[in-house]
Amino acid sequence: MTTKGVHSVTEGGMWRQSFYAPPADTQGPRPALFVDRDGTLIELVPYLCESEKMKLIAPAVMAVRQANAVGIPVVVVTNQSGIERGYYDWKDFAAVQQAMVAELERAGAKIDAVYACASHPARNAPCRKPNPGMLLAAAEDNALDLSTSWILGDAATDLQAGKAAGLPKGWLAPGGYGTRDRERAHALACDTFSVCTDNTFNALAKALNERSTLAP
Ligand SMILES: [Mg+2]
User: Fold this and answer.
1) Is 38 a catalytic residue?
2) Catalytic residue of the set 36, 154, 158, 181
3) How far is ligand 1, taken at its centre, from the CA of residue 80, in Å?
């Protein structure tokens, strides 16, 4: 499964992988749903590197399915500092991802691309959230329109990365650090960036349902 699509690891330690090319009839950049991995799409396990501990979070899977249904690409953006800390390597990361993608497929959900940043927080690398590097790279690789895209994550730093990339909205997932980061997430709201922290999965499902790539 991990051999599907093109993947590369940049010099700065960023994993860039797109599973699908934009559809041939795509006209201009498309809105995307960026989704954090740990604590959002799968249960939070610090420095997860064993695929058997990978467990999907059901409402997040539903959100992915909903995005699939309306033709909005789903892009996973995940900090993986465990790699630069030397706790595990890209091979372990790929194994966890393979399990995740397989399980998602069984649930009728697909992700379009995956970006991961291996860097240690002390380096403050451009690709490490709260910096927007992964989102910017994803936009470039997949013809995405950041100004109409959203991000779903359990940490305020996920939403912060979205805001820094010029996204108009962030959705705080309730799992992982979602409760801890509620206030911090709210504090990011401004005229150009709105934040949803209440009943997030239901609200997101409804909002996705009302969207279509034909009328972004
Ligand atoms: Mg997270």
Assistant:
1) yes
2) 36
3) 10
Q: How far apart (Å, rounded) are the C-alpha atoms in residues 76 and 5?
A: 14
Q: What's the CA-to-centroid distance between 177 and ligand 1, angstroms?
A: 7
Q: With beta carbons less than 8 A apart as the criterion, state whether 31 and 72 touch.
A: yes
Range of the domain at 165: 6-15+30-209
User: Other CB atoms closer than 10 Å to residue 153's CB: what's the count?
Assistant: 31
Q: Which amino acid is at 43?
A: E
The yes-or-no answer on residue 36 being catalytic is yes
In the chain, % of residues over pLDDT 90: 86
What CA–CA distance (Å, rounded) separates 164 from 150?
A: 12
pLDDT tens per residue, range 104-153? 999 999 999 999 999 999 999 999 999 999 999 999 999 999 999 999 99
The answer to whether position 152 is within a domain reads yes
Give the count of domains, the chain: 1
In whole angstroms, what is the distance from residue 196 CA to residue 175 CA? 14
